[in-house]
């Protein structure tokens, strides 16, 4: 199947078998769940004792993660170039749930990457496709059903990052930080690079599309700048986000690399992380920094240029909750509401990435210890289940609405 046919199938609403989720997949998180309860679940995240991810023998460390639109499949890109898919809702009769690897492609094979997968992402609207970017200078778009690339885009330099626009349009673009000072936009319909955005004076480290406007792209570079682009015009950037010095103070000139970007799910805020060990939250409507939201983020001193793959949610009552790799731990903080924070401890080596599964208030993390860990709300760990956590939680909800009440 070629790329054009695959894209048309996605637009017509066609979904692969892997896109079907379990009946109770949206049980926990819905509009009926009180935000206070959701916040309590977030506050009680802990390393799961009953849920784990299958480990492949002699498998390399996972470097990047992504959860699909239906919140069922976990996409994993590894340091050795291999790619795997984990079923997070596989049926089981055991009290301890091990999520199995249901598909994989090894490194140095006909279809696999030769070196580290630096970024991976599901097609934003179902699990029928996904994209991977690698240090082997290749970006590949995959058909999930056959686990083969339907299109491969070669580059001149090692890729740093990519992001597929999550806004529903007839032609969602892929932005690529291609190891240069330029950003490459890929049009999958034409199967070629649509245009290049040129303004950074150093390597572009990371890119991120707005979740609400298909024309707005943000980039962070080794020159320390965060640039906002309107891709309808490649002549210049729309705006450069700058930090204002306190009244009466002078800004110190320091060399800061931007190595992390993330929009909130509603697009109201942009979060940036740099090697100055500061996370900043920007108001996207005013394009201004929210001063009270800046707080120190410890980063691994041995890897100052490493991309920080963090996640954010606006569930709960605290406005924003961020999950940031912090050496061997994961920092959980609420930048808009309080200074309260916590560290999730369980890995034995630097954490590479973490991704939030919003339907269940679960967090998944990967590290150089070759482990992918599951973090669950404490209440879920107290529920012993004959089949799965989702089945018992469904029974609990049904009990709340029983006729005996």
Automatic annotation (TrEMBL):
Top-level taxon of origin: Eukaryota
WD repeat placement: 110-152, 197-239, 258-292, 344-375
Keywords: DNA damage, DNA repair, Repeat, WD repeat
Stored PROSITE patterns: WD_REPEATS_1, WD_REPEATS_2, WD_REPEATS_REGION
Pfam families the record matches: WD40
Coiled coil, from the record: none
Repeat listed as a keyword: yes
UniProt keyword DNA damage, yes or no: yes
GO biological process, one term: transcription-coupled nucleotide-excision repair
GO CC field: Cul4A-RING E3 ubiquitin ligase complex; nucleotide-excision repair complex
UniProt-recorded name of the protein: DNA excision repair protein ERCC-8
